[in-house]
Amino acid sequence: MFGKKSPPITEAWRGITFTRRAIVVGGAQAALFGALAVRMGYISIIDNERYVLESESNRVNLTLIPPRRGWIVDRQGKALANNRVSLRVDIIPDRLHNKDLVLGQLRTMLRLDGDAMQRIERDLKAASGFQPVAIAEDVTEQDYASVLVHLPELPGVAPARGFARYYPTGAAVGHLVGYVGAPSAEEYQEAKDPIYITPGFKIGKQAIEKYFEPVLRGKPGAKRVEVTARGKVVRDLSTQPDVQGKTVHLTIDADLQHYAARRIGPESGSVVVIDCLTGDLLAMASMPSFDPNSFSSGIGVAEYKWLSQNDHVPLRNKTLSGLYPPGSTVKPMVAMSFLEAGLSPEATTFCGGGLRVGNRVFHCWNRRGHGQVNMSKGIYQSCDVYFYHFAQQMGMDVIAAMAKRLGMGEKFALPVPSQSFGTVPSPEWKMKKYDRPWAISDTVNATIGQGYMLANPTQLAVMASRLATGNVVMPHLTMAANRPAMQSLGFSADHIGIVREAMNQVVNGAGTAGRARLPIEDVKMAGKTGTAQVVSLSVGGGKGGLWKHRDHGLFIAFAPFDAPRYAAAVVIEHGGGSGAAYPIARDVMTFLFDRDKAMEALTGFETGWGGTIEERMARDFAIWKAGAARPAPEDAA
Amino acid sequence: MIPVPPAIQRVPWKLIALLSAIAGFGLLILYSAAGGSWSPWAWQQGVRFLVFLGAMLVIGRFPLRLFEDFAYFGYLAVLLLLFAVELLGFVGKGSQRWLDLGFMNFQPSELMKVAIVLALARFYAQLPPASTRTWTALWPAALMIGLPAALVMLQPDLGTALSICIGGVVVMFVAGLPLWWFGSAAAAGAAALPILFSMLHDYQQKRVLIFLDPESDPLGAGYHISQSKIAIGSGGIGGKGFLNGSQSHLDYLPEGHTDFIFATMAEEWGLIGGLGLLFAFFLLLRWGTRVALRARTRFGQLVAAGLTMTIFFYIAINLSMVMGLAPVVGIPLPLFSYGGSSMLTIMTCIGIILAVENDSKTGTRRFH
Fold first, then answer.
1. Among A625, A620, A627, A626, which residue's Cα sits nearest to residue A301?
2. Weakest-pLDDT range from A581-595, B16-30, B153-167
3. CA of B367: which chain A residue's CA is closest?
4. Would you call A21 and B323 a contact, using CB atoms and an 8 Å cutoff?
5. A328: annotated active-site residue
6. Does residue A49 sit within a domain?
7. Low-confidence ranges of chain A (pLDDT < 70)
8. Given this model, what pLDDT does residue A635 score?
9. How many CB atoms lie within 10 A of CB B226?
10. What is the total count of domains within chain A?
């Protein structure tokens, strides 16, 4: 740069250079200002809309209000599930600043135990942003008030008044109605709906609550509030109320359901009552059960363990998922198949206590024998030999076909998440399932409802109603305005009369269930007893011994016998025989005709059993907990 | 007509009006940022402005010769103070910048922005014209810039260090140093960027990275920029109206009364307010540039040009930052942001430029 051609550097040259360069610097400055002006214009004109939205979403915090669930009511409109006001306390993690202090305060104020604190710590770690973490649901008025008073010192704590699901009859409707619970992470991932992470929002988890979720849900409300960056609410902007879910109308008779559940008492069993004229299911009681109220506010680990470890399986809906060998309750059905296949009802055989089939002797339940037995006596005395004898003549095909016509093995269109529909064995079925030919002994077993034959209590009730009316009674659980007229099964009226009369004799004549007679003058109940063998006689006596080795007791019934209106099935697991089942059927049926008499009987029983369902459950749980807490005392803290 | 007395004529009324307009507008914003209250910011800032305005006018009456004579001395004194900060300064907000004088926290690096310009101007004013393109013109200047810049980087204060450098480099540029020096220095600097980057502190590196990709950390370090852009953008053309800015009032905008005060203003006054303020700053810088062009002495020329650049640098970096064109560096908006140190620097700069202007009115110019 110091070439000889460079002009000599003088003060004047320096001055000109300065002027030029100062103008360049000034120009550059002006250009940058221009660029800044353009940039600002771009942000505030072109991008304005976007940034207005962002500033609004900064400013306004939308809080969803969980919708009130629709009620579940019985046929008269009586609530099986409704809502009650519930007070809750949540934490908004983003607004929580002094976590340890706030949690410590809440712990004393709401008397939270170590279990709860652990859960809260875990939830807080997993939660992000404004997704609230539940601290306590269903707090008392006093506790709620004390949190409200201390709210200024508890940043991040959000008390709220909401609604909780309430089941007035508790355990009596546990299996039927199901329960609600907070949505799981998977359910949120699937739905991608912000209402799923709103505190206090519950979805149906079982049975009716789950099946009718879309109907019961309703529409969430929303509350818009202006918040500062630190989450402090400055003012309320607007509130849109929630829309309550629709009511689900069940065919159930709430009082009957409650009565049936109570009447089962300490036994493990189920009662299904059906209206023969419409197919409406009036009661589907399965006991022991769980209290859906405990589930709706999040069931405790201990309580769940207690329920799942109980050998009476309170978590299984026995009316639909319990499968039992129907035992002798199939005999009227088998008799009907004989009649329709042309057997005379007067045809007799001799029962000497057993029958040789092939090289094996099949015994009658009465080892002394029934003597000469016709069809009627075969039913009311439940003579096994009569059925062994004629079933071999008539063949399994007619019996299997009749069983299916009467609803055995059928899956009903009920609004339930699952039902087990059992087995109606036939030669084709056995070939397909076991790849073995049908044996004559299979027929003999099936005809008395043992062997491969399996049914659930709802199917037994349907079978009873179809036998009684000769119509294709379809069970319904929800009320509907116009249903198609009932189809006839096409039985001869004489045949229906013969079976009805025989079943009448079971209760009101020389039959096996004389004690099942209704204590009402002009209503007669017809029925059929059944005893299902659980283990072979060599293991248990059937009646005594270990509970789980005892026979199941079954009973199907309808009343009044000459103009059937109601049909019922009662199954008592390990009841030691049908004697455990028919007194229950008697009382439940009595309830339909004379409530006072039925209640009187029940009150007497409940005194003996040690109180109502709730009282007994509470006591059992306390005993179980005391026993369970002992081996691990460190958990009790 | 009543003859205006010369004493009143000598007062730079237009400049005072311009500065008062900018600062007064700033007071309104501070009033709004405090939620419609004169305390804690607006009142104190107003008093401070009046005090510094008086100081500026006094500085403006000083003979320019005085600044030239004390340029080196001042530079050395401030350099010593910077050393003192390294040794004695207390740590605040994660960096060591302040010297506790008892009555106020004093930030010597601010004074260096002025001192470096004065010292370099003195150096080039004394340099014989023939040496302008020699090595002699370069190394003392580079040393004079490098030493304080390095000290300030240690504090660490990237923004102030850059400001010192840019003020010094502009003086070198207008002093007539060969263009290719600047070109190759810029090229070398660009090549050395990765090395320089690795020398930055973690949080500074993070800011630069966030600047390059603001969406990567919307709730962390990118939060400032996003919220600032939301504030400016949502203001639109006319703004949301005085006292109606939700971003600043609801605390979404951090530092809404200091570094990000422009966003606070733009939210409520919109593009119109922003362009108005930009225009006011433009007038101020145009005045500075004109003073430089008309200066009577070489020292005056260089000083006015350098100091104007120093003021410009504040404005440009701050505005680029709040509009998302530059990484977040802690540089306030002159006369507008709440704070004493930067206002002291700016008013001192303007006072010295005023002294150059007054000087050029007194005698004959040496260069044409």
1. A625
2. B153-167
3. A15
4. no
5. yes
6. no
7. 1-7, 127-131, 230-231, 297-300, 535-545, 628-637
8. 40
9. 20
10. 2
